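Subject: for your reference before the review

Hello V.,

The reviewers asked for a structural picture of the protein, and I figured it would be easier to keep everything in one thread rather than splitting it across files. Below is the amino acid sequence we used in the manuscript, unchanged from the supplementary table.
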Amino acid sequence: MAFSSILFLFGFLPLVLGVYYLVPDRFRNAVALVASLTFYAWGAPQFVLVLIGSSWLDYVLAGSMRSTSDAIKSKRLLAVAVGLNVALLVYCKYMNFFVEQANAIAATTGLGQLTWTSIVLPIGISFFTFQKISYLVDVYRRQAQPAGSFGQYLLYVVLFPQLIAGPIVRYHDVASQIRKRSHSDEQFLVGTWRFTIGLAKKVLIADTLAVVADAAFGATADTAADPARLSCAAAWVAAVCYAMQLYYDFSGYSDMAIGLGKMLGFDFLENFNQPYISKSVTEFWRRWHISLSNWMREYLYVPLGGNRVPRWRMYANLWIVFLVSGFWHGASWNFVIWGAIHGGLLTAERLAATFRLPRWPTALAIPRTFCLVLVAWIFWSIGDFCG
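And here is what came back from the structure prediction:
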């Protein structure tokens, strides 16, 4: 059920908001939880019980981590909890890809093919898996208190405004709001306006730009033009349209999520901040998908050693982070290549700073960065790049 669909706009959302504001405050979490589970079950009914069950395991294991004074036991519980979430993500999102690659290798070597029934990808699994891992790690680090009840934790995981497309929310940023939050006409109107802006970005701008982008970079041969027949100017226009489509689509969904959150009394952190005016790729990643960048830094880059390791290891950490980021976005080689490109660009910028190379003036740095990001987006768009 997309936020821009007629069913959501004129059916689900008015009904949920109507019931939410009619009931007393103490029942509003229950309404939000039921609405969120219904929202998720609408798109993935066969997976909703798995989501509830895995969330219950998180809740129990996090509570056990916090209640024990044995550091080794706590670390083992964390490893089990994170391992279960990663295993579920890998199985649901990547097993089809792994089997396809194994069969492709088998076809070239004469080995037998693997028989496999394709798995339907559960919607939003990448986002809520990262949220669940951040909760477990923060509880282990004692940066967050465990949820007061399973219902509170489940609401954090499945809250429908940010369930399927982010932003990735850390538990300690919304814990107090889950327990108790204020509502006001002003906040609701701000949320409505923000949702409307996001909807306009998605429907009026992103979907219009997609017509041009799909003509050049369509997902299939039936929708895409023959690249050899595209003129240089047409290719650049299509690439710019595609970059803008991605921005307005994704930032539009983030705006809608933030707006919906405000309608329900929640304040989510911003996820985009004018990324295409960045003067470097490093700055771009401080402005694009901010919640993912923060997650990767906090839960992958820093644990790998971050900047506190030998220089060669720091560069390796950057590559690992962006290869993981690329693969997180999709089970396809083009996303891995896209991640490798960004890892390479960030490494190059670190090397330039190390050797104190002169910085480009802003008037040149912004278009240079945009062009570099644009080229990377082209690899993102070509789903069968290695096929």
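For the response letter, the relevant points are probably these. DSSP finds 14 helices and no strands in the chain. The two ends are 31 Å apart (CA to CA).

Happy to draft the paragraph if you're swamped.

O.
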